[in-house]
Automatic annotation (TrEMBL), chain A:
Organism: Anaerocellum danielii
Residues annotated as domain Hydantoinase/oxoprolinase N-terminal: 3-158
Domain of life: Bacteria
Protein name, entry field: Hydantoinase/oxoprolinase family protein
InterPro entries: ATPase_NBD, Hydant_A_N, Hydantoinase_A, Oxoprolinase-like
Pfam family, one: Hydantoinase_A
Domain Hydantoinase A/oxoprolinase: 178-323
From TrEMBL, chain B:
UniProt name for this protein: Histone deacetylase
SUPFAM superfamilies in alphabetical order: Arginase/deacetylase (SSF52768)
Organism classification: Bacteria, Bacillati, Bacillota, Bacillota incertae sedis, Caldicellulosiruptorales
Family of the protein in this entry: Belongs to the histone deacetylase family.
Organism the protein comes from: Anaerocellum danielii
Organism domain of life: Bacteria
Domain Histone deacetylase, first and last residues per copy: 80-279
A Pfam family of this chain: Hist_deacetyl
InterPro entries: HDACs, His_deacetylse_dom, His_deacetylse_dom_sf, Ureohydrolase_dom_sf
Length: 546, 438
């Protein structure tokens, strides 16, 4: 049995799945303390019988995201080796920042050594200012982390509570994002650690081994709680990934689709292209910081069941303000949910004073007014869908082959999930002129998406035969290669290493998503090859049988 | 999110799967390090720096710019078509005011491709900038265009195409033709009878450094541009003036390129040559992008850059000063020179050319005949002989008077295919192309 838990804006949803069937599901109200609510609902939901045949529990929580949004962060000192490029001032994200002298170039060659004496005095300063967490980031460190590691070794003497080095967060190039990711990873350390410890206690009390507890990542993959201790940043923004994944597994398979999750406060839109969820090219944006945290690409609209419908300057406005049903007073306002209910005649006595008053203001019948609101809402969703389609179809292509033969993304249907999905379906179908499918269990699709996630990861191998070096930052591999190393050897090596690390069970789980091999020519003579390979663990979504 | 001062469009099309030959300098690896540098710099994260994919060129624009012999399909590769298409995509975005500036980082380059083209010269088959100009005039009715060619090699193809067109001001700065391919671009190449002074050449001595380039900009190019008042400025941004370039002998740095770009402030830049792919291109391209976008570029320096190594000798500075004065006097006396020609007794102006296709190792012989017309820039006809083909090509210019236009069509009608392998007509006034046999 697998269990998935998703913390939403208003509820905590939990499901249990066994043999490809949803065997139990429940929604819990979210209380004041998030950690308490999570533990409380887990305790209530997971019975002793469940524990005996429990395979895994996956948690998707907003706890680190909230810490960032609410600026509830640890003090962080940053050592940044910025090298050549933009003026680095905009990278000063830490509470104290130091720009170290030194440079490693795009091929991972040291151009200028790091000035370690100035680093040492900076570390001393950080300690004096009570900074407990340290971030270390260098330009092109994923091509050669030597400088980051050198500083890391030196920093050990100063006993920081938590130290994070940039190259371990992602193998992708993008220095500002590496700086911000490292900073945030340090800044949410305490918050995540609190959560980590609570879950640890829970698992010990309930005798659930820690290996069975996973956290949902924003790319739809999952990671074991134990492995994420040093990477708390990977637990951010998991909501949209859970819902997109839930939508995928619950619906009938198509290659290209749009997944829309309408919740209480927002509607999240994700895209399934060529059978895979579309990812952000570099990573998620968290608060004001763009990061390298792998994440699914999603667009969000401030429109949900609880969005307040108003009239501003003779036009209908929906959201982004919300009101919960129990906060409602004397029918003095209406929500989008009220409008949907009225239009679908599900409600016996829907005519409330609010709706009447709004429609009168626009000299319309209540029916026409509701139609207008829904068409306005559909337009808000459609705008974001268009944005997404344009984004996907404009992702950069670097080869003639892809330019000429790359397929354009055209969605075949919308998969609609979330509380009000059934009510919205006919209207969306009518307004957007596309097939809309509301799958079974649409109410708890997020938690299902969370439960069915599998381990996901990306690997970037770069081999340079002139230097005789190869790097795979994600696996911490930096090693020598012979001068006649080829792209096929590189692929084989990468797959072997992934299997060795037990991150994949067999060869077929590793998918090469991008590969190139360039001849390097100096003075008109061939002198080596630059090989680049990008691979990922194939997402293995469980098929639900009902 | 970061925001640049100017909104900028980039087309990054490295054509990673295309090359001339395995060890050719114009190769797949050329933009690899630049893309690494751009990615690591996080340039894609600026909210007003946009990356677009190119589009495929409509062959009509190639036809209206070049006479491709024996045919477009037999000499133009897909890669060239995409590079030219990129120039058009850039033009669209800038002209529709979607962005303020555009930079096409594309390969292969195009500025050595002449009006008549039999294949590859200096890695160019069709002229990306010239095709873009054709598009700008047709779709946006742009009249006055300035093309500033800062590639180390003389932009002979662009010069050839706009030789007699005074709506296009062409200025080329390059290492002088006695020491570098293609061996042209001397100060006396100043344009055809109706566009005298609208082609200006600044042949620079080897080892000219930042100082010399920026002197030309301040003392010649910018003053001329201020007087010409172009509607659009295009930079043929070759990057082979760099001190580390393996094919040339100049001493320009990334800082120099960035300053030049900032001062010139082109609306559109199109990458031409530049073959120091590892030591120069990542930094030079970054410098140009930053300068176009109005981002502080003071921290962009080649890791091995030492300005003292590149102090410009006094004799070079003195020479460049005289050069700028001489070229400026050509610009100043252009009306006078044109008047003399048009008032003289001559009916036609002839240009005899021998054009070497270095990549392919053959030579074209050409006689160009321009009618000296007092009402328009004049009908052009070209008799070209190469690779066993004999081509008769006619160009009716944009501003053609009725007489020249009618004469052009008559000439096309009356020229027999038997004498020539190709009889071709570009009617630029009506945007029409004709060939015999049909």
């Amino acid at each position: 049995m697998i269990v998935g838990l998703d913390v939403g804006g208003t509820t905590i949803d939990i499901v249990a799945i066994e043999n490809g069937k949803v065997v139990a599901s429940k929604k819990f109200e979210r209380g004041e303390s998030l950690i308490d609510s999570v533990l409380e609902s887990l305790t209530q939901f997971i019975s002793k019988e469940m524990i005996s045949n429990l395979e895994k529990i996956t948690l998707s929580t907003t706890i680190t995201t909230n810490a960032i949004v609410q600026n509830n962060l640890d003090k962080v000192g940053m050592i940044i080796e910025n090298g050549i490029g933009a003026n680095p001032e905009f990278l000063m994200c830490g509470d104290m920042n130091f720009f170290a002298d030194g440079y490693i170039n795009n091929r991972g060659i040291e151009v200028k050594p790091v000035n370690i004496e100035s680093v040492k005095s900076t570390l001393q300063n950080f300690k004096q200012e009570d900074i407990e967490n340290l971030g270390i980031v260098g330009k092109f460190s994923v091509r050669n982390p030597q400088h980051e590691l050198y500083i890391y070794e030196v920093a050990k003497e100063y006993n920081f509570k938590f130290v994070s080095v940039g190259y371990k967060l992602s193998g992708k190039l993008n220095f500002p994002r590496r700086v911000f990711s490292t900073y945030l990873n340090c800044a949410v350390y305490s918050t995540f650690n609190m959560f980590y410890k609570s879950i640890l206690t829970f698992s010990q009390e309930r005798k659930i081994p820690l290996e069975k507890i996973f956290v949902q990542k924003p790319d739809g993959g999952i990671v074991n709680l134990h492995n994420i201790e040093c990477f708390p940043i990977f637990s951010i923004l998991s909501g949209p990934a859970a819902s997109a994944q839930g939508g995928c597994v619950l619906s009938n398979f198509v290659k290209n689709a749009i997944i829309i999750d309408i919740g209480g406060t927002t509607t999240d839109i994700a895209f399934l292209s060529n059978g895979n969820l579309v990812l952000e090219p570099y990573g998620a944006k968290i608060g004001k910081y763009p990061t390298l945290v792998r994440a699914i690409y999603s667009r969000s609209v401030g429109l949900g069941a609880e969005s307040i419908v108003k009239i501003v300057d003779d036009t209908v406005k929906i959201g982004p303000e919300t009101k919960r049903w129990y906060e409602k007073g004397k029918n003095d306002f209406i929500t989008f949910y009220d409008v949907l209910q009225f239009s679908n005649s599900y409600h016996e006595n829907p005519i409330n004073a609010g709706l009447k008053s709004l429609s009168t203001q626009l000299n319309m019948s209540q029916e026409d007014f509701c139609k207008l609101v829904i068409s306005r809402a559909a337009a808000m969703i459609e705008e974001k869908i268009k944005e997404g389609i344009e984004f996907i179809n404009n992702l950069p292509v670097y080869t003639i082959n892809k330019f000429l033969y790359g397929e354009k993304f055209v969605p075949q249907k919308i998969i609609l999930i979330g509380g009000p999905a059934q009510l919205l379906k006919p209207h969306l179908e009518n307004e957007l002129k596309i097939k809309v499918e509301v799958p079974k269990h649409y109410m708890v699709a997020n938690a299902i998406g969370c439960a069915v996630g599998s381990i996901s990861k990306e690997y970037n191998l770069v081999a340079d035969t002139i230097q005789g070096k190869m790097v795979i930052p994600e696996l911490n591999i930096y090693q020598s290669i012979p001068a006649d190393f080829t792209i096929d050897q590189a692929k084989k090596f990468l797959i072997e290493k992934v299997l060795e690390c037990r991150e994949a069970k067999n060869q077929d789980d590793v998918e090469i998503v991008d590969e190139s091999s360039f001849n390097m020519i100096r003075s008109f003579k061939f002198c080596g090859r630059m090989i680049k390979i990008k691979a990922q663990l194939k997402p293995k979504l469980l098929n639900l049988r009902d | 999110m970061l925001k640049a001062k100017n909104s900028l469009e980039l087309i990054l099309f490295p054509a990673f799967d295309w090359r001339i030959s395995p060890t050719h300098p114009e190769r797949e690896e050329r933009l690899l390090y630049t893309i690494d540098q751009i990615e690591e710099e996080g340039l894609f994260d600026y909210e007003n720096i946009k990356i677009y994919n190119p589009e495929m060129i409509d062959s009509k624009y190639i036809e209206m710019t070049h006479f491709c012999i024996p045919a477009i399909s037999s000499i133009v590769t897909v890669s060239h078509e995409i590079a030219a298409g990129s120039a058009i995509t850039i033009a669209k975005k800038v002209l529709s005011k979607e962005v303020e500036k555009g930079f096409a980082l594309i390969r292969p380059p195009g500025h050595h491709a002449h009006r008549v083209t039999y294949g590859d010269r200096g890695f160019c088959i069709i002229n990306n900038e010239a095709i873009m100009v054709e598009y700008l005039r047709k779709e946006y009715k742009i009249k006055k265009i300035a093309i500033i060619d800062t590639d180390c090699h003389h932009g002979d193809g662009t010069q050839d195409i706009f030789w007699n067109d005074k709506d296009v001001l062409f200025i080329s700065l390059h290492q002088d033709g006695t020491t570098l391919y293609p061996g042209t671009g001397f100060t006396d190449e100043i344009g055809g009878p109706s566009a005298i002074g609208y082609t200006l050449n600044l042949p620079l001595p080897p080892y000219t450094s930042d100082e010399g380039f920026l002197y030309c900009l301040d003392n010649l190019i910018i003053p001329v541009l201020e007087e010409f008042k172009p509607d659009i400025i295009i930079n043929s941004a070759g990057q082979d003036n760099h001190y580390s370039d393996p094919l040339t002998n100049m001493n320009f740095s990334a800082q120099g390129y960035a300053k030049l770009t900032e001062k010139l402030s082109p609306n559109i830049s199109v990458l031409e040559g530049g073959y120091s792919i590892e030591s120069a291109l990542p930094y030079v391209n970054l410098g140009i992008i930053f300068a176009l976008a109005g981002i502080d570029y003071s921290n962009i320096k080649e890791p091995d850059y030492n300005p003292e190594r590149f102090t410009q000798p006094q004799r070079i500075s003195d020479y460049i000063k005289r050069l700028c004065e001489q070229v400026y006097s050509i610009w100043k006396s252009k009306e006078e020179r044109e008047y003399k020609i048009k008032m003289g007794n001559q009916d036609y102006y002839f240009r005899k050319k021998s054009i070497y296709y270095d990549t392919m190792g053959f030579r074209e012989y050409q006689l160009e005949k321009i009618k000296i017309c007092k009402k328009c820039s004049g009908l052009i006809s070209i008799d070209s002989f190469c690779l066993g083909y004999r081509v008769f090509a006619i160009v009716i210019p944009y501003d053609a008077c009725n007489d020249c236009q009618n004469e052009g069509h008559r000439l096309f009608e009356n020229t027999e295919v038997g004498d020539y392998s190709h009889v071709l007509l570009q009617d630029k006034k009506n945007f029409e192309f004709f060939r015999k046999p049909l």
